[in-house]
Amino acid sequence: MSQVISITIALILLLSSIGAFADAGREYQVERELERTNSADGRLVRLNAGGRSFVALHLPPQRAPARGAVLLLHDAWGNADSPEVVRPLRQGLARAGWETLALQLPPAYSGENAAGWIARNQRVGERIDTARQWLQTRELNDPVLVAPGASAALAIPYAATLRPNDLRALVLISSRATLTPAHREALVKNGLPMLDLVAGHDEPAVLDAALARVQSAAATNDTYLESRRLAGARPGFRNNDDALVTEIRAWLNANTKP
Predict the structure, then answer these.
(1) Chain-centre distance of CA 85, in angstroms?
(2) Which residue, 48, 67, 133, 149, has most beta carbons within 10 Å?
(3) pLDDT of residue 240
């Protein structure tokens, strides 16, 4: 019996190693593409978290006075320079005086759904921690965290574990994530401003989830969560890049201290 258990454990470890190797291979391909396409559009920074290296795209503020730092995640099927949402924000907010750092997360498998990607990436907080530490070396101690799509389901529980003033604000974009009472209580306790932004013509599941978050916040007089719709915009905010940047920049200017 013990021999069977040992063999089973060995098989599980082998499959896990194969999966980790495949993950690293896919992420390496994404990194090479980022190196090829972004040599003149942001500095590729190599960081390390949990014994594994990863990259991020960095842009310094291009206008004075500097406002602070923005950490950008990407959706399950995106990357640190996705043309929808991520690239417009990392470039547009840098032009508006924010230092931006877009993190590369482990990419989704072919055919994988959002739930599977979220389940595999519960340690993404380690990458965010490393990125925050890197920003601290640049005297930027309380970044804004921006999480589009499925990454919001990782950003919310991560933010709920932090201390007051570890983050300046949390921005969710077109998210289907659930804001649990425990997470909401922790975020409110920290006084963390939150923007919940969706496209005016977003997917029904996204609009329903945003409404549920608003109703949940209203039930407890949560004044830190602000929900907005970008009128006329469609999923991915295609052809609405400037409006997306303007909306988020204006909200940050009104809800965060320089």
Answers:
(1) 11
(2) 149
(3) 97
Q: How far is CA 44 from the centre of its chain?
A: 18
Integer Cα distance of 125 and 118 in angstroms = 12
pLDDT at 3: 57
Q: CA-to-CA distance for 42 and 81, rounded, in angstroms?
A: 10
CATH superfamily of 41-255: Alpha/Beta hydrolase fold, catalytic domain (3.40.50.1820)
From 45, 153, 32, 139, select the one nearest 90 (Cα to Cα): 45
CA distance 29 to 36: 11
Distance CA 63, CA 92 (A): 11
pTM for the model stands at 0.88
pLDDT of 28 reads 62
CA separation for the pair 203, 194 (Å, rounded): 21
pLDDT tens-digit series, residues 81-93: 999 999 999 999 9
Q: How many Cβ atoms from other residues are within 10 Å of residue 183's Cβ?
A: 17
Dist CA 161 CA 132 (whole Å): 14
Dist CA 159 CA 30 (whole Å): 26
Whole-number pLDDT of residue 27: 64
Give the residues of the chain that fall short of pLDDT 50. 8-21, 39-40
Distance, in Å, from the CA atom of 196 to the CA atom of 171, rounded to the nearest integer, reads 6
pLDDT at 110: 87
Do 235 and 203 contact (CB within 8 A), yes or no? Answer: yes
- Peptide bond before 181: cis, by omega within 30 degrees of 0? no
Check residue 31 and give its pLDDT. 73
Structural contact between residues 54 and 127, judged by C-beta atoms closer than 8 angstroms: yes
